[in-house]
Please model this.
Amino acid sequence: MKHSIRLELIPEDKYSDYRYNVIFQAYKWDPQVGDNNTVSKHVVILDPKTVEQLKSWAEQLSSETMLMEEKLLKNLSLAKELGLPDKIRNTLGHTLNYNRNKHVRLMRFDFHPTKTGWAISEVNSDVPGGFAEASVLPEITSTYFDGYRPAENFANIMVEAFKSKTKAVANIAFVHATAYSDDRQVMQFLSDHFMENGMNTVFAAPDHIKWINKKAFSIVEGNECEIDGIIRFFPLDWLVSLPRTSKWQGYYDCETVSCNHPIAILTQSKRLPLIWDKLDIKIPVWKELLPETKSPKDVNPQNTNWIYKPALGRVGEGISIKEAISKKELLEIEKFARRDSKNWVSQQMFESAPVKSINGENYHLCLGVFTIDGKFAGFYGRISLYPRIDSNAEDISVLVSKESV
Amino acid sequence: MKDRMNMYKIWAPDNVLWTQWTKPVLFASLPCNNNDGNCELKTSNADHIHMFDYNAAVIVDLPGKESVDEGLVLAQCGYRPVPLYNGVYGNSKFSMIVDVQGIAEALQEGADILFALNIRADAPPVFLLDSNRMTGQGKEPGKYDNRWCVFPQDMPSASLLLKNGIQKIIVRSARIQEDLAHILLRYQNQGIHIFLCNNDEIPKELKVSKPSLYMSLFYRFKVTLGLSRNATGGFGAVIPEPQIGWSNRRYYGYG
Model:
């Protein structure tokens, strides 16, 4: 499909206020990373037809992903090949009573415009980020331009998803690494939005939740209560590192409405494509949009068209895109991937098609497309001057043109 | 009473290079208090670094509000204070592991002082850190864990400092903490001279010791992973040493 993407500059006289507003209204507490300003001076404009196509793909991908999870749950022996920590694999049996209708299922699919059309690099299935960016940035920037509008508001859809599965005035726990401000900013944004919509919220570290008869209870000082819903921004891979006294296994079989339920770990692994043919289900959109994926040991080391990714990777770290990292880093990643191939994956590299700004700079774009319970829930845009989207990338507002370009 | 954004704007004006590194976290989470506007500039023990040097940046790594006070003293000498506090203000003074209330109040009061100063846009920076950032007390369940570390990406690169004429860095602290050593050694390796100044001592040039995991691709990841190992969901008290071999290394995280 042809890309209908444009970059527009935020009016120069508006940018300063925009950046301050992004920091305080969108809880962007890391507006500077190293020497890079991470609040883009641009917005990305999508054509309505492009939006419809991305929505359709994301919803189909979400449906296929949930099918794979449920199929995997019945064939947990296949999970051995996903590169999951032993403690997680040994706990997956606790999830057998999982019922998707009782939880809120959130995913973010990362789309990239390439020289041969759109491709996806991955699904962030466990704890995707970019909530405020998908909700607030378009609302602010849409006031700067005529003829462009925000897409769906992520935060509003998230609130509605919880309201449909909990009581009207529910107690929602925001579980995160409380000392990590990058995480706190995400949680605080969403918590404030939930409170504005009549819900009670609790900020909690993972071990601030206790389990009684498979129900969650908060032991946070001053906020001791039964919890009706959990929004977890603490990766499952980290949970297993907590002491046994934290009872982290409770998340796996709890009946409290969870986002995401730990079943998500089954599709969080980048090694999922290595086993999906064994699941005996149709996943045509995944196969159309994800570049070919192999075990590192099945790739010729001399072939430079393949990149390596850790099975449970994070914000672009550890991905061996040679244009984006030093030779030393490249060699180090390749060495680890080959030596520890069961925890890594190789993927055929796609050639990102950069989008030219009005100043003539070429930016590589990643459009995170959220789905909540299988339905489209907004865009999270990031751009970078080099073809890897990592922590140095700029957050960019995504707007939709009211008419086709 | 200033709102949070206006207070942040005073500490982080957008026409100043170095204030782009100002961390919004504490500003965004602190309660807004009324103050009487009669703020007094505190005195300092470190007279030796108050000789303004256009080629020097200062890193103040002192406990709690002392760091803000010292930053404001240096602001009067012509430096531009840049708060790098990255810990969240918890629900109350007593529920936080690291008590940041003193810093929060000092930032609020200091905004008035700073607003009245006429600091040049190209003034050299004084970066402000809380030396108690990893040493909070009372880590029992239910406490709000707001400990934090400073990472290389929280500060300007050596090349940018050099490009802007900064040739030496004076650390105003009793000692160099491990997380700061990761940053200082990068600077030192690029030719920036590092000095340490404790109280009334004359700043002494020092050779920064190589910290564990220095320049490792996995440093930030490892520290963050250390965070997850803590029962309260926060950082560990020290930067964790590698405990598994490279061959067993995993990546964890979210997108």
Remarks:
- Chain A touches chain B through 72 residues (CB under 8 Å).
- Chain A has two domains: 5-270+353-401, 296-348.
